[in-house]
Amino acid sequence: MNANVSLPSNGRVTAFLTDSTLCIGCKACEVACKEWNQLPSDGYNFSGFSYDNTGSLGASTWRHVKFVENPTEAGLGGNAGDAAPGWGFSSDVCKHCENAGCLEACPTGALVRTEFGGVYLQPDVCNGCAYCVVACPFGVVARREDDGRAFKCTFCYDRQKAGLQPACAKACPTESIRFGEINELRRDAQKRLEELDGRGIRDAQVYDPLDTSVGGIHALFIVRGDPRAYNLPPRPEVPTIYTKAGWRSSAVAAGLLLAGSLLAFLGGRS
Amino acid sequence: MSASVPRSPDVASEARLLGIRREAERQGRLEVAGVRPPGAPFPQASPEAGYYGLPLLKRPAWTWQVPLYFFIGGATGAAGVIGAMADWVGRDRELARHARLVATGGALLSSGLLIGDLGRPDRFLSMLRVFKRQSPMSVGAWVLAAFGSSSGAAVFARWLQERLDWRPVRVIGNIAQFSSAVLGLPLSNYTGVLIGATAIPVWNENVSTLPLHFGMSGLNSGVGILELLGHNDSRALNLLGILAAAVETWEGFHIETSSQPAMEPLKRGVSGRLTRIGGVLSGPLPLALRLASVVTGSRRARRRATYSSLVGSLITRFAWMLAGHASAKDYRLPLEISQQRPQQPAVILDQQAEADSEERLAV
């Protein structure tokens, strides 16, 4: 076991910190995740999008390495001239939101919050209603066609229970995926930004939407440039915020139906 | 000495690839001979194009049963309310009886459709495992279950009452009919909240009007079904049809005049065409026909209004579902990219999944 990884004991709120400036795009996290969680293959598809043939997170893909090609910069690995792109890799994962759309939408109670702060889908309860699929502002949860149930990253709840770190973090060879206590990781992320800044990399930023209705995430990312190039939404919103306006309109419709039918039948009597 | 030199990427071919890519970016198409792979030109990841123009959100995984349920459930809920009103206010016993039967049958059919859409239909009872106020799906499941039970109880009590006019039977029948009416109110429109409170931009953009829209669409079709059952002379039903068609006309106007980018799927493409067709068939057309039938007493105009609003209401539900699919595929809204149209075509990674997704909605 890695000596400098502090493993959380039960009850500590944990998180991932995925640092794209350290990622080498090896996809070991994708493989380790599939292996540990025994996920089915995604088939052989050629996308043409750099070296990413996975495309997005899904029911059978709980870690997904994104490949972003940037213009080259001299001195930052960009010594190949104009011909080769500058690489940006980032391993995407379920964000385990503080206010999770999937968890709030789930009508069966299959989605729960664990003692580590993650969002866990209990496959023995899920009945495949697929409401969580449209409730996720990050497009993470998906329903598996052959199985019928929805699936997403479990935050390796089984491993965390046993005092182990998640399989992806364990497999990451460059410590691009770090796992630990959430506040420590938030501090470490800021330190890392300063360190990068000192090395002349000034466009790195932490993706952690604390000021939105999602209220923070348990999978922080350090990316260079605009997070939108990595399909990270600038202002993710938990869909529960729309229910108030919805029920208000529902009450208006109910009132109209009630009053309308009352008046119609009163008038229709004559 | 064999000439087996390992092939490695050389500067010349990389430069050519870059040239092709730049041309594709500039012109939106490729003229180079031999370079026309499926999905070309290949987009690049950038803040302007998102992650290769790939969808950020997942598309609804619901099958055709769900929009059909929106239609039937809406009509069913409205029938519950109409039945009680016809009984207690309108003194139209026959209409009340038919409305109770529509409510009960519709609730059964609705449950069947919803169970059929589940990935694990055998676990449908999980829906009633917990009650979650913040989940419209949970609220809806409970409302449907309670509505179906009380409508069924009302039908049974009234049937019994005809044979055994005993006071407790009458009281139970009234209680059941009352609760069927009370629960019919949310049942007719909660599906608007259900899809409005999601991450799909075109749905949550309209969350403050969708329940009203769906509720009136449900009233429209509820009235239509009862008219088909022979209540063509009920003035009250025609008045309710006018109310529903009027609100639907306003909703169509609201959609057409809104310039929000999230509204695009309601105006463009297949979903846009269907929204317009459904809107005309359930709004202005039946409104005009019903008003004409009031003025001229034309039964033919009223019959046409019945058909028009039933078909319009059904199309409207499928149009909204398709609009949700189109909206989920559009990466621009969640990424707050204000481009007019996507510049690069998003390549379909998993063509089987794409085909499955289209198939699921095809009846």
Describe the protein.
The complex is a heterodimer of chains A (270) and B (363). In chain A, the strands form four sheets. In chain A, strands 8-1-10-9 form a four-stranded mixed sheet. A two-stranded antiparallel sheet of chain A has the order 2-3. A two-stranded antiparallel sheet of chain A has the order 4-5. Chain A has 270 residues and is an alpha+beta fold. Chain A starts with 13 loop residues before the first strand and ends with a helix. In chain A, 51% of the residues are buried. Chain A has two domains: 14-237, Alpha-Beta Plaits, CATH 3.30.70.20; 240-270. Chain A contains seven helices and ten strands. Mean pLDDT of chain B is 88; it is low at 35-40 and 342-349. Chain B is elongated and about 95 Å long. In chain B, helix 4 (136-163) packs antiparallel against helix 5 (167-187), helix 10 (269-282) packs parallel to helix 11 and helix 11 (284-296) packs antiparallel against helix 12. Chain B has helices at residues 11-27, 65-88, 93-117, 136-163, 167-187, 190-196, 201-205, 210-228, 235-257, 269-282, 284-296, 299-329, 351-361. Chains A and B meet through strand 2, helix 2, helix 3, strand 6 and helix 7 of A and helix 1, helix 2, helix 4, helix 6 and helix 8 of B.
Main-sheet strand order of chain A equals 8-1-10-9
Tally of separate helices of chain A:
7
Instruction: Briefly note the CATH topology name of the largest domain in chain A.
Output: Alpha-Beta Plaits
The CATH homologous superfamily of chain B is called Formate dehydrogenase/DMSO reductase domain
Helix content class of chain A: 25-40%
Strand residues, percent of chain A: 15-25%
Helix content of chain B: 55-70%
Domain unit count of chain A: 2
- Report the CATH C-level class of chain B: Mainly Alpha
Total strands of chain A: the figure is 10
How many DSSP H or I helices of chain B? 13
Let me know the largest β-sheet of chain A. Answer: 4 strands, mixed
Major sheet details of chain B: none
What is the approximate shape of chain B? elongated
Secondary-structure class of chain A: alpha+beta
Query: How many strands of chain B?
Result: 0
The Rg value of chain B, from CA coordinates, equals 26 Å
Helix-and-strand structural type of chain B: mainly alpha
